[in-house]
Each structure stands twice: as C-alpha cells, then as structure tokens.
Design goal:
about 400 residues; 10 helices; Rossmann fold; seven-stranded mixed sheet; 2 domains; Aspartate Aminotransferase, domain 1
Length: about 400
Amino acid sequence: MATKTGLDVLIRGECTQISGQNVAVVCNQASIAADCRHILEHLLECRNPSAFQIHSAFGPQHGLWGHTQDNMIEWEGATDPRFPFPIHSLYGASREPSDGQLRDADLMLIDLPDVGARYYTFIWTMSLCFKACERLGIPIVVLDRPNPIGGTETEGTVGQEEFASFVGLHPLPIRHGMTTGEIARHFHQRYFPALELKVVEMEDWGRGMYFTDTDLPWAMPSPNMPTPDTALVYPGGCLLEATNLSEGRGTTRPFEMFGAPFIDGIKLCERLSALDLPGAVFRSVQFQPTFNKFAGQVCEGAFVHVRERSQFQPFLTYIAILQETIRQYPKDFAWKQPPYEYEHVKLPIDILAGNDWLREAVEQLTPLDQVDGRFRSEVEEFAPTRKEALIY
C-alpha cells in the first residue's frame, strides 16, 4: 500500500485538525499530496473552506517555489495572484517569523520535507518557527513526511553546542534516521516544552522503508536534490561544500558526482575502490559545471554509485573521499573559508561536522576505523534521546 503523508491524512479528514483556525502555513514546492497537488491548492479547495482561513504562507531556503538555486541566496516575501494572503520568507532578512507576521494567526501548520541529514536547513526553519510560536502562544500542527533514506540507520557526528549554526542549531546525528514529525517531537521534548504541538502521523510507513518503497511522488525539495538517489549520498556529499572540490552543483547529478580540474579521476577511483567501502562503487567521470565552483571548466572526479543502500555508509564514504583527495593532492586541496550559512567565523567544515576534531582527523589521515569508531560512540550516546521521539 502507498504511504500516506500527514498531508494526505489531513485532506482525507477534510482538514478537521485545523477547523475554525486562522492558519499560517509553512511549506515549499515539495509540500505535495499523493495526487501531486500542492498543500496550498488543497487547503483553498477544502470541501469545508469556511471551517478555517489561510492567514499567510512562509517559505524556507530556496523560496516557496524553489526558485533560488544555491546556498546563501536570500529571497524576500512575495505575492502570488493565485493566493489571497501574504507570502513571507524565512531565508532572507530573518529566518524566524516575526511577531508582526504572525499577528492574528491562531495556528501554524508546517509541511516541510526533509532528506534525512542534519545539514538540511528545513528542520532548522521548523525549530525557529517553534521558538516564535512558543513565545506567542500559537499552537503548531506538523504534517509528517517520510525520511527518504530510511528510519533505522544513524551515522555521523552528533554536533556540539558551541558549533551550532543554521546547518545544526541543536545536537543531532548527521544521518538522524527520523521523520519530520519525529524531529518535531524531539524539538518539543528537549527545547520547546511550553509549545502546544500536534503531529499528524503518516499511515503505511515503516522504519525500514526508503522513499522508493513508499509509492509517493518525488518532488525536488530543493534545486540540488533532484532524485531520491541524491538523498542517499547527501549525508556525506554535503561535506564537499566545505572544500574547494566541486560537489557537482551546476550538473544534473549533484553530490553523487564530484571533482576538480586538478584531480586524475581514474587514479582517485582506483584508490577509493581499493578501500572496499560497503555498498559503494566509484566510476571516474569528467564534467563541466555550468555554475558554482569551476563553472565552465572541465573537472575530473568520481560518480558514487550506491549499489547496496542498506550497507552504504554515506558519511564514512565521503570522509574517505576527502582523505584520499588530500593524500593525492595535498597542495591543491583546500577548505572553504567562511561565510557559510550565516556563520562568519568558524570554518564551514566545522559547523557541518558540529566539531573541529573531524577536520583534524581528515587532515591527519586518521585511519577510517578510528574515525568511524569515534562518531559511532557519539551516535550511541544520543540513541536514548532519539528513541524518546520515535513514532513508528
């Protein structure tokens, strides 16, 4: 049976969970139902529209309709002739709804996709919405959505408070193995206990399911997340944003494909293949990004094929990629300098990792099993906290 998202459950119940409310809606272009239609269309066409009103809409990074291509490209509020209410940006002058924007709102309805990685900013937009609504006494309803890379595996560093940023406001494993609704419960339990929260749960979703098991339509949650395969590698692939390597932006397969003009792709793939990393196959490629790093230049590198997704360890795999690149090209490789996602002092790699020990381990070519053991101990320590928030 096809999975039913929280939005599908809400629609089937004729939106009774929001009856009589003046509702602020937080969503983006991927906030679609099983029929591929957008949440705002469904709300406006509810069979009992007088039961509630749409107060406003808020969009996260990349815009309500996904129109901004890259990181750190802000957008401001907009108007849309289809929708008789204001549209506000949560990735512009402010990333938190203001008191004025929420004036006269009775309820906030959040329907944001996630891709299963701590860096993905939509969950932090949700956290800042929780902060604003707790302060103003506005209840929140979160419509749950699947974790596209499954709900069982966790991986990567958990993050330290002193490295908090918009790619990790609170400690959470990089591959967290939670749904949007479960993350909402975690935030509520740990950080916003006075908030009135309801999660509209999914139906027919199990923890071992990947997105392709759900029979749901895939809508790109952001411009560089074109397929569910992209989400599989993203918990590791995003680390390349913190380097002078192209993470494949400006191509049709970002994060699965990476490289640089100074790399010998065949040689790099031979070294990576010799590591026998679980679930992954490396194929040498050449590509020419149309924008972002090395735009218009020919890069060599690798395409990461995930052959056994249940065995594949994205975070460990891309740590290996970083180490092998440094081993082969120590004079060419470099870490990206700030600013990055509103952090102007700390290095991007440190705020992505949530610490500075990982960067040092990569630079010093610390054996992979030692790196793996250290971040797995962090994940194990976090496990009881994660378990408290699980729904399914």
